[in-house]
Amino acid sequence: MASCGLVLAACSPAYGDGVGAPPSLAADAAAAAPPDAAPELGADSEAANADGAVLPSPQLCAGSYGSIQEVPTSQPALVEASGVAVSKRNPGVLWAHNDSGDSARVFALGDDGSALGELSLPGVTARDFEDIETAACPDGSGPCVWIADLGNNALSRTDLAIYAVPEPPVSKAAPLGKAVASKVWSFPVSYAPQVAIDVEALLVAPDGSAIWVFEKVDAATARIFTAKGPFIDAVPLVLTAHGTVSSPGIAISKGRMITGADIHPSGTRVLLRVYTGVFEYRLSPGQTPADLDAASRVLVTFGPLSEKQGEAVSYDASGLGIWTISEDPAAKVTQPLHHFSCLP
Question: Which domain holds residue 120?
Answer without folding.
Answer: 29-60+68-342
